[in-house]
Every structure is written in C-alpha cells, then in structure tokens.
Amino acid sequence: MKITQRTWEQLDLPVIAELTRSAYRIEGRGDYTLEQIERYLKNLNERFPIEVAMIAVEGERTAGWIGLERKTKNIGEIGRWHPYVCESSNRDDIALELIEEVMKYASAHGMNRLEIGFNEISDSNLKAYENRCSWLSALGWNLVEDTCFMTMDSLEDYPIFTVPEKFQMHPLLSVDDNELFKCHDAAFSTSEAREYYDLSKDEKKQHFTNLYDRSQNINSEASIVLKNDNNLVGILLVVSRDSEEHITVLAVHPHFRGRGLAKAMLSASLKELREQGIQNLSIGVDIVNTPAIQLYQKYGFHVTSRLSFFSWKSKPR
Predict the structure, then answer these.
(1) Cα distances (Å, whole numbers) of residue 69 to 30, 49, 51
(2) Do domains 2-140 and 168-306 have the same CATH topology?
(3) Rounded CA gap, 210 and 204, in Å?
(4) Model confidence, pTM
(5) d(CA 191, CA 253)
(6) Which of 57, 124, 187, 311 pairs as cysteine with 251 (C-beta 3.0–4.6 A)?
(7) CATH of domain 2-140
(8) What Cα–Cα distance (Å) separates residue 181 from each residue in 41, 228, 257, 295?
(9) What residues have CB less than 8 Å from 279, skipping those under 6 apart?
C-alpha cells in the first residue's frame, strides 16, 4: 500500500466521491448519488478548506482517504467521519496508516493539536463510530467531548424569567474581546464542558477568537451579556446557521451562579428570536452536563442528535 499526499486541487474528485459514497453505504450513514456526494465535498471544502489530503492506494485501487484543514495556526481538524476506507480485509490497517500520516504531517507543519468530530451518531452507524474510536484510541487520541444537540421547534411557549435587580443587560457586540474572554474563561474553567479542560492556555485563546469571530453571522439582537457593577457576569451568543439559529455560548461567571441569570438571559434571547420570526433553534451540550440539559428541557429543547470530539497532542520536538 502506498500513501500519497495531495492538495484539494490535485484530488481526483469523482474517485474520492465514489469511495466516500461506498463508505457511507456500508457504514449505515445513508445511500446517496455520486453527484450528491461530489456536491457535498465541494461545499464542505468551500467552508473548511482542506490543506492536505492523504490517499491510500493499493495497486490500481484507491483504498482510502483522509482530509485535514488548519483550524487555527496550531490546531488542525480532520474531516468528520474520516478516514473513508473501502471494504477490505485490511481495512483497519489502512485507516490506522492514514491517520498516522496526518499526525506526522501535523507535527512537521506546526500543528501541535489535532481534532476530529463525529456527528449524527445513531444506532445505524454506531458500529462505524466504534471502529473509529478504536482506531483513534490505538494511536493515543482522547475523547474530550460527547455532545448532544438539542433543538427547540417552537418559540411560542417557554418559561419567563426576568433579570434580577442590580444586573443590567447589554448587547454582546458592545463588549470588547478582553472583557468577554475574562468572563468566558472563568465560566468554562469551572463548568462541565470537558473540551475546555483539554486546551492549553494558547489554545483557549485561539478557541475563543474563533468562537466570537465578529465576521461570522452573529445574531446581534439575540446575543446578550449581563453586567453587575460594570463587571461582566453572563454571556449568551447566538449565531445564524443556514436554516436555524444556534446558541453557541450560554455561560455564567462562577461567582454569580444560582441566581437565575442563565434563565433570564435565555428568556430575553428567546423573546427576541420569536419577534424575529425564528422557528428553529439549537444548542449543543456535553452529555455529562446534566444541569444544563435539564434547564434546556424546561424550555422545550429536546435531544435530536449526538456529536463526539477526540483530540491528539503532538509531543514537544
């Protein structure tokens, strides 16, 4: 078997699409036409450009592939559900070699952390997910987050909570990044969000910069913060995604928890979204964060899918 390195422009898209389509079918992830897969891969690359792809070739056959994007300067992300490998007696070996090649590339090109996510995990594709868990585990990757996605299909009926006295609500975009990061870091450093604990100090900064990137489609009216004596104590960030709005951040400073601030921010944001005519709202939460899940359920959110994340960190050179 030979592993070759390609850029997106160098890929034989029909061949890669057919391999992906075949893997989808045998792994219980859906049966799609070749045209649908090609269009999906093109759209995905436009949103998350591939820096490098590794192609496994056995004789004349393309046996597997894996793509890598540069998420930040030092963090790379492997495409979800990669690698795609054809049905073969040595399928596990092909997959392991592809992942190892990406790890070697990352170490040689300034990426000290790699991430990969698996979305829409269900009974039909659970075996495929478990296969990938075994591949990653064998190569020293760690599970850092197991998220359930929750959706709210109707914004017509939800609990109403008002902002307590001595707290003031402001638009999120009126606050500078330094102030936002101070509250964000304090909140997530003491939360149930396991992914945050897996990040280094620099990676937390990079993660924050991506999360609050003001060039993205932030819903400026529904994204709010709470202050107490000019101190930022709560954050709620809503981002527009295709046909839905997504609550990306709902966080309260640890010194101010237990006062109903998360409920007050959520009520205010939902009121604004309802006035905007929004019908579909989603949020992601780690499955170990039981208090948050219970809160969202009270507001009418229900679990619709599951997403897990793994990470790998390179050893200092």
Answers:
(1) 24, 6, 5
(2) yes
(3) 10
(4) 0.70
(5) 10
(6) 187
(7) 3.40.630.30
(8) 34, 16, 18, 24
(9) 153, 154, 155
Strand-pairing partners, residue 61, are: 58
Rounded to whole angstroms, the Cα distance separating 181 from 120 reads: 30
Listed by start position, the domains of the chain span: 2-140, 168-306
- Looking at domain 168-306, its CATH class is alpha beta
3-state secondary structure of 161: coil
> Which whole-number Å values give the CA distances from 280 to 160, 223, 277, 283, 301, in the listed order?
19, 16, 9, 11, 10
d(C-alpha 1, C-alpha 92), whole Å: 13
- Inter-axis angle of helices 177-188 and 201-211, nearest 10: 120
Per DSSP, the three-state class of 30 is coil
Q: How would you write the pLDDT of the chain (317 residues) with one tens digit per residue?
A: 899 999 999 999 999 999 999 999 999 999 999 999 999 999 999 988 999 999 999 988 999 999 999 998 899 999 999 999 998 889 999 999 999 999 999 999 999 999 999 988 988 999 999 999 999 999 999 998 898 999 998 888 888 999 999 999 999 999 999 999 999 999 999 987 777 888 889 989 998 999 999 999 999 999 999 999 999 999 999 999 877 899 999 999 999 999 999 999 999 999 999 999 998 899 999 888 888 899 999 999 999 888 899 999 987 65
Alpha carbon distance 183, 185 (integer Å): 6
Q: Smallest Cα–Cα separation from 234: which of 170, 314, 295, 296? A: 170
